[in-house]
Every structure is written in C-alpha cells, then in structure tokens.
## 1
Amino acid sequence: MSMQDVLEHLQRLGMSGYEAKAYVALVAAGKPINGYEVAKRSGVPRSTVYETLGKLVARGAAYELRGAADATDYLPLPPHSLLDRLRREFDGSVEALQTALPSVVAAPEAHPIHNLKDGEAMLARAGDVLAGARRDLFLSVWPQELRRLEGQVRQAAGRGVEVSVMTFGKAADPFGEDRVGHVYEHRYSAPEAVLQDLGYRLIVVVGDRREAVVGGFGRDGSAWGVYTADPAVALMAAEYVRQDIALQILAERVGADELNRLFATDPGLLRLLGRGRAPNGA
C-alpha cells in the first residue's frame, strides 16, 4: 500500500488531509518531535501545523510532551491503539444509528428506484443488496461479475443467509469448501446462445425479495442497470432466477433431449418461447 493510500484511508476514518499527514509524520519519526519538525516532514504549512496537531491531540491521536523552557513535542498514539479506538467508535456509532435513524426517517411516498450509470455503480449497488440481505439472496450472474462479488456472497452465506447463484458459464465456487450456498451452472440454454440472443451479460441480484439490482454488461464495455426497493419488482426478479434454476435442475434430471422434445411439440411452450425454437438453440 502506498503512502497516498494510507493518507486516503485515514481521511475516510475521519481525519482531515492535514491531520492524516501530521499523524503519519509523527509515527514515522519514531520519537517525539515539535511542530516545526512535523511541518517539515509532513508538508503541512507551518501556519496551520499547531492547529492541526491540536486537533490530533483533541481526538486522542497524539499527545503533548512538555519539555524544558515550555517547549512542546508531540507523540502519536500507536497505530494499533488508534485503529482499535476508531473501530470501537465506529461500531458504537453504527449501533446507535441503527436505533436512532429509523425513528427520524419519513415513510417514502413511493418505493425508490434509480438508474445505475455504469458497471462500477451497478456492482457497488449489488454489493449493498448483498450486505443488506438477512433471509435469502438470488443471483443470476456471469463469471466476470461473480468474481467481483464473491467475497460479499460468501459473507452473506456465512451469516446464515440462504444464497442461490445461477452462473452463465464455469465459475469458481464462491463458497469454497464451506458449502454454505447453492451454485448452479447455466447449461440449458448454453451461455454462448444466451449472449448471442441478448447481446449483453445480464446481472440480477435480489435480497430478501424486497430489493434488487438488474442490469447488463455490453461486449463493448458499456453497462446499464437499475436499483429498486419495490417488493413487487424484486419478487419478479427473484422468481426469474428461481425458475431458471428450476429449469436447469429439470434438464439435468430428465435430459436436455426430452426437454427439447417437449418444447418442440407443445404449442403453449412454443408460444412462451416466442421464437419458435427450443431454449438451447435446437
């Protein structure tokens, strides 16, 4: 991790840019140093370095050491102690807000729905759905996207969420040896045929049948999608994944040839297909 990464992470945990630079300078010094040395080592302007150090002292990230002639040196709180303290403060704030925030939130006039402008936004919002699930998750994804989400999928299963994943193509099992979720590979229809028909890689992520992310990744690198907390839409998205999984299981049990025969000879099934051919392209 670069020094810039360290500074950015400290800022994400609540420090200002100057505070992060000053703290890192104190830690790197290995001994108490005065404000002049902090400014010289960190790049914090001399005009603001003492104000910055005062803020670090106020938050408990540094300590003042009074020396001879009223000279003041500064000593950092050791990094492991700082991180433990920040973690406790963060966890305490989250716990307090879990109780406090719902009491001030007005009931929405309508279930939220919003567009997702690109692939990164879509995967980030899908991660939110994965993190928020408490009962069940349904995913229909391609290996490229599953690799980005597998850590959060595994975490959800680890906290007791029932996870069902449909993959379009061979993908690494996100559950590893834990076997705490269910993964199905899409063979009927073949992923290549699906991609040829749609022209993009569809992604569906549904949490607790109350919120969903649905979108697509184009072959040219483009991506589009929506997030919705409309339970009716989320339920339909979950049923899409559930029924696709059921079809894969059925094809494995009775054989693809028998399913092809049924699709080819039943007018009702042909009408639902809408293309006058069996699902696997036959």
## 2
Amino acid sequence: MTTATLAESHSIASSLGSLALGDNEFEFLRDFVYQYCGIVLGEQKRQLVQGRLLRRLRALGLKDFAGYCEILRRDPQGELGELASVISTNVTSFFREMHHYDLLVDELLPRWLEQKKKDGGRLRIWSAGCSTGEEPYALAMVLAEALERTGSKVDARILATDLSPQALEQARAATYALERMGGISEARRQRWFLRGEGAYEGYAQVHPRLRELVTIQPLNLLHDWPMRGPFDAIFCRNVVIYFDKPTKQRLFDRYAGLLEQGGYLFLGHSESMYGLSDSFDLVGRTVYRKRA
C-alpha cells in the first residue's frame, strides 16, 4: 500500500469522522478476532472497536472498515498484532496485586533458590501477557533481590510475552514516566532505575541488571509455543477475562503441561479457574498450584 499524501490523509481523516462500523464488517471482525486471538467481542464492544479502529484506518490511509477487513483477509498474520493492540486494554502497573509478590518474596523464591542450588536446576518464570513490561520487571526486582540476599548463583530467567507489538516495544525500551511508578517503593526506585535527564526528564529506565533477567518475545497464546519449559511459575493475569470457557480450558491445560510439578499459576483478581481445570488446586488469592 502506498503512503497517502498529506492532503489525502487530511481528507481521509475528515471523512472517517462520521464513519460507522457496519454489521457485515463487525461480524467479520468478531469471527476473525475469535479465530486468531480467542477473544470474544460482544455487541456491546462495537462502539469501542469502531472508535479504536478509526485510528488504525487513519494510520493505514484507508477510507472505510471494509478496506481494513480486506487487509485482514489477505494477510491475517501481518496485521494481527496491530489488531490485538486495538481491541485489548493494556492496563498494568508495577506490583499490581501485591499479595502475589509477597508470596514470591516470603515463601516461593527462598524455597526455589535453595532447592535449585542443591540440585543445579534452573529457575524460570513466565509473564504471559506482559503488556508494556511493568509485570516482568517487577518480577525481576524481587528475583534479583532474592538472588542477592541468598548469594545464589542459580540460573534464573523471566520470559515475557505478548501479542501486541506496541506493548512489546515499550517493554523493550524499559523506560517509564515517573507517574507510572507509584507502586514502587523509594528504595527500589533508587536501586533499580536510572533517572532520566534533559530530554528524558520525568522518566526513568529499568536498571540493566533487571533487563538481563528478562527475555521479551512476541507470542500468540492460541498458537504454537516454542518454549519447552518447565516453568516454576506462570503469571497470566487479566488475560483470560477476554476468552470464552473452551479457550480458557485449553489454555489452562497447556499451562499445566509447561509447569513443574507443584508449579504455580497466578491469575488476575477477577479471574477464576473454578470448573475449568482438574490440574490445579487453589492455594491463595487467585494463586493455583499444579497437582502432583
């Protein structure tokens, strides 16, 4: 597709202002999103999808939603990440649902590090649906602190994945506005962030030590997973709320297959595994342990 001229872009933007997402296009998008992302778009989401997609149409220089649907038909994978960014809400923060991190610090990390120091094993945590990176870097903070506290040389890593290319770009940049760092204690800000100056005044970047612990990769949870595991813990918080029951069941079964025996799965505060899997026991607030 050729890039629109400035005049053409202005004309397109003006014409898009009153454009409505028609029934045929919305039905196509609903089917497409469910097939490729596992996300159910109800009728109540139509206005939200319409408003967010208008920005994408402007970026692509398209005149209507039919043209966007045609792009999806021709090259589903090429536009999939951008569409996922449009329809999902990347709301996240550092140390969101602090009780999960308390469990890691007080119980799980000391136990895992001690055991792996004895048997030479690896420690692996997966942030599935990492969004813009706050979750995996918060995990890296408590992991790095546990490694320092125990003097452990354990091979420990965090995998962070997401479908949204925009979210992954921010996560890789690891640079955050200071107002987004409210969940971080002053001591941790001093220890794990580099304060920006000049053009970066008002921002801070994650310390290289933490960035070394985190591997960031694109991944569609509905497609093949290249990693073999096993993982000691998987964080999949505020992700499955978008999925229907069969998709959740398949996802939880796949998580169970990648977790260590006795490994932990962390869900979001409004999510539950009740009636969806026989592979886990509820052991805390939205914390599940894989059965032996």
## 3
Amino acid sequence: MTAYEKIDVVSKSATPDDAAMLRAAVQLTKDITTARAAIYWPDCFLSALVGYAALVGAILSPNLLLTVGLGVIAALALYRALLFIHELTHIHRTALPGFRFAWNLFVGIPMLTPSFMYENVHTLHHARTRYGTPEDPEYLPLALMKPWSLPVFVLVAALAPVALLIRSAVLVPLGAIIPPLRTVVWERFSALSINPSFRRRPPEGAFGRMVFWQELGASLWAVALLASTQILGWRPLLTALGIFSVTAVLNQLRTLVAHLWENDGEAMTVTGQYLDSVNVPPPGWIAPLWAPVGLRYHALHHLLPSLPYHSLSEAHRRIAAHLGTESTYHGANYGGMIPLLGKIARSTMVRR
C-alpha cells in the first residue's frame, strides 16, 4: 500500500464533523419530520397491487415477450413495495397505525421477507460507533477488496429467493424441533445483512412475540407455495422466483452504490459516515426506479435517519440551497449508478 492509498483509506474514519452541516440538516427540516399516512399507504399498496397483477399476468401469458415485459413491471413494482421495510425500521412504533401489520400481511410474508429480518438489524448500521466497523451488519469494505468480490456480491443475490424459500419451508420448521438448528438459523440466516461475521442476538419480549407470528406466517406460506406445484405445476412458482431474483439483484446493485465502502474498520464521525454514503439527486430520472422510497438520498438519510422518505427530496433541496456547492454536503452527491459502479470497481483495482 502506498502512502497516498493509506491516507485515502484512513481519511474517512478521521474526518471531523462539519458542525454547520449537521446543524443545518436538523434546523431546516423541523417542519417535515412527520410520516404522512396519506402517502405511505397508497404508495406501498398500489405498488404491491401493480406488482402482483403483473406477476399473475407473467405467469398466465402465452407470449414470451409479454411475459418478460410483465415480469419487469412486476419486479420494479414489488421492489418498491418491498423497500418499505426500510421505512418500518425507522418510523416510530406509534406512527402509521396498522401499517406494519398490513405490510407484513401483503408484502413481507408473501415475499418471504417479514419485517423482523430488518428490524433491530438496520438500526445497528446507523449506530454512531458501529457504522463501517466489523460490528456493522450492513457494511463490507468492498472498495478495499479484490475486484472479483463485486460481481460475486451482486450475483449471489440472484439465489436469495430460493434461499428464503428453503429457510421458511424447511429450516424454520425443523428448527422448531431441533433447538441447535433453530439457534443457527436465527443467528446466521434471519437478518438482511451483508456482513458474514454478523450474528444476531435472540429476540426478546414484544419483538420476540412478533417474530414468532411472522415466522409462522412465512413458513405456512412457503409450504403452501411448494405444495401448490402439485396442483398448478412448477411454472407459477419458478416464474415468481425468477421475478423475485431480478428484484433481489436490483436491490443488491442499489446496496453496492449506497456507500463508497472505503472505511477500514475504525469508528467514524457522522460526517465521515455521510461522505462514505451516496446521494443521487435530480435531474437524473432513472434513480427512483433503482433507488425508490427515498433511497436515492442515502447519504442524507444517514444525517437524518428518522426523516420520512417523502420528505427527503425537499430536505435535500433546502440543505443544498443553504450550504451551496462548495460545502461538505455537496461531497456526497453523485450522478448515477454507472459512475458509482465504475468508481468502486476502480478502487478494488488499486494495489494495496
């Protein structure tokens, strides 16, 4: 590793906080911090409705081109609905009454990704002393790893739907009668994390009870899906798994460009975390497709984790206008997925 490369790696963890930026982010957004049910409910469940309708159409279509077209629509719509799991981890438990239950019933359990798989996991990623460290379940120093790690990171996501099906239909029921297996499944295969060393702690109290019912629902649904092949044949299930694989890969690509992944394991300041994260603001029009539900403003989200997704665009406009293009805030803004993929890929090719 050259001296320049070493400085480049360390600078992220050594970045001092920009007090003016942090203060402006809070003060300029005080009036837009409430999650609005009139936006959350129709956005999420109309997306799910479109997704499921397109999925049924793809299954029933006799035309390959139409099947592919409907499959793309289903993948994008269900992707948007699924990513409301991110909002569930941040909104206050008393906000949006009934939304968590409805989301799990109509999105989380049908897609075998109930909300417990992200709740009490994603918040660790936002912990001041955990972000970018080995204790962060959602961080790998991908920019500092070998070039082959990037395609492997993306392509392994294609197997996620099959893995989730096996988990809920086979491993969870077996774990109910084999306690050591139950422990392994919970610790290692019950969180939407990318850090292979992350081990999840046992659920307790009200959260534990919620996990039980969500696990039961997901397992019953997974068994029903497998059983349906004896009546409907394999096409419906395989088509759904294929569409869900597209969704999973798209989400993995979004995850890959959500951060620069340049931290070397040391704890970071809030400003350091911000600069290691990514905003893809307008005028780009395609970002809402691959980073929906406000995730095109991922760096801003790390400044204001509890800000509802529908307020992020306005928050970005206010903060950017107030601080200007020469500010630290501007340093996390990028032009799109392709430039970001190129930047991270080039980082992996630097000899260290």
